[in-house]
Structure formats: C-alpha cells, structure tokens
Write a structure and sequence with these properties.
Layout lengths: L1 H18 L1 H15 L5 H4 L4 H16 L3 H14 L4 H13 L3 H14 L5 H12 L3 H15 L6 H26 L1
Helix pairs in contact: 4-5, 5-6, 6-7, 7-8, 8-9, 9-10
C-alpha cells in the first residue's frame, strides 16, 4: 500500500514538473477558487452554458441510443461542472438504473427529489429500483410520493395512473402474503 502511495506521489510530482510554471499557477488559482471561494468549476474553467448544454445533449443522445456507460461519464462530468442542475443528476440516475446499479440509482433519484420537491418522476423511477432490489415497502412509499407529487397536473396523469396501478398491485400482494402467514 505504501509503495502505491509513493508511486502516485511521484507521478503527481512528475506531472507537476512537466506542466510548466504558468500552468501550475493556473491550476493553483482554479483549485483555490473552487475549494476556498466555492466558485462553480464551470465558471473557474470558463465553460459557457452553451458548452454545458452541448455536453448534456450528447449525454442525452448516448442514453437514448442505449450507451448508458458512455452517457454516465458525461453526466458525471456535467455534475462536476455544475452540481446544481437537476437534469444532470437525473440523467446519471437513469443511466445507473438502466445499468442495473439500482442502489446507486435510488440515491441519485433521492437527490433529484431534494432538487425538485414537486417533481413526481424521480419518486416513480426510484420505486422501480426498489422493486428490483426486493424492497417492496420502499417501492410503495415511493409510489405514494409520486402520486402525491403528481397531484392534478395534467402532464403527470399517465405517470400517476401507472403509479396507482402498481401500488394497488403491491398492496394486494402484501395482503395475500399476510393472509398466508396467518394460515
């Protein structure tokens, strides 16, 4: 372990020497702004909103073409550049969901719920992740939250109907399970 750490330190030192004095100063300035002044990395690195939007578009296309791992890398980069944009977190959650990393996806969907407390979509997708890992109670809670957040908003009525059907099915399954235990 100690040998590995020394190798890493040597590699970092070698990289630092190869950067040149100007690049070292730029890197030092960027690091201080990000860590001490809490400036968004996108601003420190001079990335425009249109550049980020272009990256998001590419990540979205990769996701839609089934290249979830590639898309996840771009969504991670976008989150590093601007952690306050909920679309990036939702995109990464969806990639992990499709890659069957359900626990990580649930954590990110939960974070989406914090970013957008009135949005039922993350709750709905989290319910599927819970079902996939066999946590039916959490799935039911997520479905209830999705139904509540959908409310009477027209754009969420299909989601709300699906959530209600799934919830009803799970409730029925749980009642049958209880009944069998009593017998």
């Amino acid at each position: 372990m100690k040998g590995d750490q020394k190798e890493m330190l040597d590699a970092v030192e070698e990289l630092g020497q190869s950067l040149g004095e100007k690049k070292k100063k730029e890197l030092d300035r960027a690091s201080r702004e990000i860590l001490q002044k809490q400036v968004m990395p996108k601003n420190t690195l001079g990335m425009s909103d249109s550049t980020l939007e272009g990256l998001y578009g590419q990540a979205f296309r990769l996701y839609n073409s089934g290249k979830y791992k590639d898309a996840s890398h771009l969504f991670r980069l976008l989150i590093m550049m601007d952690s306050t944009e909920p679309r990036y977190t939702h995109g990464l959650a969806a990639c992990l969901h499709m890659m069957k990393d359900y626990k990580s996806a649930v954590h990110l969907y939960t974070l989406c719920c914090v970013f957008e407390p009135k949005n039922p979509v993350p709750h709905y997708h989290a319910s599927d992740c819970y079902l996939q890992i066999g946590d039916k109670v959490s799935a039911m809670v997520s479905l209830e939250m999705a139904i509540k957040r959908a409310g009477e908003k027209e754009e969420f009525q299909t989601l709300k109907d699906r959530a209600k059907m799934t919830l009803k099915s799970l409730e029925k399954e749980m009642k049958l399970k209880k009944k069998k235990k009593k017998e």
